[in-house]
Please model this.
Amino acid sequence: MVIFFVLAVMLVGLSLLVVFVRNVVHAAVALVAALMIIAIFFLTLQAPMVGVLQIMVYAGAIMVLFLFVIMFLNPMTPERPRRAWWGLGVLSASLLAIMLLFMVSKGQLGAGPLAGTEWFGSPETLAKSLFTEFVLPFEIASIVLLVAIVGAVVLAKRER
Amino acid sequence: MVPLNYYLILSAIVFAIGVVGVLIRRNLIVVLMSIELMLNAVNLTFIAFSRFLGSMEGQVVVFFVMAVAAAEAVIGLAIIISVFRHRETLDPQEMQLLKW
Model:
């Protein structure tokens, strides 16, 4: 319980850093730390496979790609603050947060967890579910990734 | 054991912070990172429900969300690179050629 609150405060603080820090590289590093903390949450929720994938795919691959693009473009022009949008942004986000918190507080799911077995989220059970019930979405996901690769190559190609 | 509601509240807060980032930042890369933050908040909700309802479906959905998020990041960054080559800016306000 104490660990949950420590991690939750760290996660919220790092998310605020991602949004409000001026330096893009610092925001990216804060996002890496936030993704790591979410991975720790996954591990405590008995989802070890997804947690490891989170670290490898998100904190590893995707964020390296982000940092690579930041270094590649190297946008040195400082960002002009968009004052007019601050009120609207904060207002709509706080409205959304209030709405979500209200819905959550109305829910009756506060009871304890179902007695999961020791190997609830193991790679074996995840793979069993993935390759029996969800075979078709799995194959479609591979096509999505292929299209993304081809699209990225075409988009980033230098025109001549 | 932490109750389910705490996870839902935490993920709602993180999602709202991501919305703020999309709305108020003027840097396309930070906007894309805020979208990733929102996707991760939703992933946390999925995993929490999967644990508390004792079903595997939530974890499988998170797997697919990760695959689609990787594709989205790749395409988004490729578009940003291509736009930056033409305009030398990352400000979404500057990209209004289709607006009248």
Notes: The domain at 1-75 of chain A is CATH 1.20.120.1200 (Four Helix Bundle (Hemerythrin (Met), subunit A)). Chain A has six helices and no strands. Chain A has two domains: 1-75, 122-160. The mean pLDDT of chain A is 83.
